[in-house]
Amino acid sequence: MNVKLSVSDLDLYYGDFQALKSVDLDMFEKEITAFIGPSGCGKSTLIKTLNRMNDLVEGCRIMGKVTLDGEDIYKDIEVSTLRKRVGMVFQKPNPFPMSVFDNVAFGPRTHGVKSKAELEEIVERSLRDAAIFDELKDRMKKSAMGLSGGQQQRLCIARALAVEPEVLLLDEPTSALDPISTSKIEELLASLKKDYTIVIVTHNMQQALRISDKTAFFLLGEVIEHGDTETIFSLPKDKRTEDYITGRFG
Amino acid sequence: MVKRKTLAAVAVGSGKNETDLREPINSNKHISTKKISSIMLRVLVYLGVFLTVAAMLFIVVYILIKGVPYITPSLFEFTYTSDNVSLMPALINTVLMTAVALVVSTIIGVFAAIFLVEYTGRGNKFVSVVSLAAETLSGIPSIVYGLFGMLFFVLYLHWGISLLSGALTLAIMTLPLIMRTTQEALIAVPDAYREASFGLGAGPLRTVFKVVLPSAIPGILAGIILAIGRIVGESAALIYTAGTIAKVPDTALDSTRTLAVHMYVLASEGLHINETYATAVILLILVVLINAASSAVAKRMTKGKFK
Ligand SMILES: Nc1ncnc2c1ncn2[C@@H]1O[C@H](COP(=O)(O)OP(=O)(O)O)[C@@H](O)[C@H]1O
Ligand SMILES: [Mg+2]
Fold first, then answer.
1. What does the alpha-carbon distance between residue B283 and residue A19 come to, in Å, rounded to a whole number?
2. What's the CA-to-centroid distance between A66 and ligand 2, angstroms?
3. Cβ of A143 and B210 within 8 Å?
4. B125-173 confidence digits (pLDDT tens)
5. Complex ipTM tops 0.95
6. In this structure, what CATH number is given to the domain that contains residue A37?
7. Does residue A88 sit within a domain?
8. For residue B43, how many other CB atoms are within 10 A of its CB?
9. Which of A14, A171, A217 to mutate to test the pocket of ligand 1 (most atoms within 8 A of CB)?
């Protein structure tokens, strides 16, 4: 397996507060890597670092190195190119207050696709890939705000897929959803794995166990342990990991 | 408990309707001091509503009664003469004045707000200073703007007493209002939209114009409606900047008289009081129409975007 994203010796500060402490982590191509850990331990902070969404946070300082296919994302790649290659899905579904079609077409249009036929093709393919085309094909022109939470989240996944990213980052994508929508998204991720490298934050350990290949356990800004999901869950090396996955804290 | 039960049994036994002897918990029987103060509050509230509505009704009805009988076709003739005080030129000038002033203040105000909200960090000192300044400016009496307009546009820039001087004075006057309402509207747009847009690789420019601004349009329109109201009703700031010539101007550098100024002049001349009331009726109708049109536009725009 090739390393797709690599984080080395990363320190991150919000003002004086150190949110990440010398993090080293590799994420492999066409695998699902899960970040687990109690809330406030820096999972969102790290995942946002991977497509530079932290640039928007005032007073955020980052030291260390993050590479995508060996290229330094803070030096060698333009931000908009990086975000096209590394897409993101957020915790709360955040469709734009536009039609379903315009939501999915927003990314391709941003990156210069103009032809209507081409856009239509991209939108249909992205919605199919996100397993929501059949549900939405008759309401392309309707506002996305009228969809259910689960549909909105899958629409957001389709919107992220529409720019043909290589990596998909998902920050607790199912925490605001009901169990049925959650299992639909889990199935979807399992099927997307063959084409994409996926990084997912979850505080649901069952979810990590069900869908991920690799797991990284975070505590107070540090990666305590990372490796094969099965190993982490069956034979954790660190006492703190064991305490967490057996539910003794967090 | 026992007693209540037997009483209920008696009531049933006597063939009467079943009655519960307990006091309904929502009855008004126990008036405490707390209740009295709440009744007083209620009376005050009703009194306030009544006075507001009554004052408004009185003004509107009074103007209608005094003015409507004098609305004649001659009042709408294209030229104003001292015998026939036609309001048509003033009506056209009002529309012109509003359009020019609004275009200027909306463009500057919206861009200033975009800069303050989207391009400077939250909690920035500069932003709070500018906001405070805008707040202060919007409280200044309009005659002060008129004085400034006269000194700067009319005298310093040599534009004379003209449509342009008047319109720019009004633009400056309504600028803080439009900027503040736009700022509020932009701040109310959820950050989640911005994140989503940036997350797809869009730059700040595209994010602002394709995502943030469309969501903020209803709020911005509300500000524009308020601004229209101020412009249409303004007289003090215009008398020394746009003047009182009751004629549709040939160029932007000619003097013009808007409806509100027209009324002021007619009333102070004192020769055409009836026509003044008729003009007031037209001004009233104009304001109502503008408000209705703007809110219809706002509604349609929100529907198109969000439904
Ligand atoms: N924008 C910010 N400014 C300051 N502190 C922040 C910011 N975002 C997160 N933090 C802090 O950084 C720590 C990690 O947050 P986060 O990455 O969101 O945790 P998680 O996603 O694991 O729950 C928390 O203590 C949080 O309070
Ligand atoms: Mg989080």
1. 62
2. 20
3. no
4. 888 888 888 888 888 999 999 999 999 999 999 999 999 999 999 999 9
5. no
6. 3.40.50.300
7. yes
8. 10
9. A14
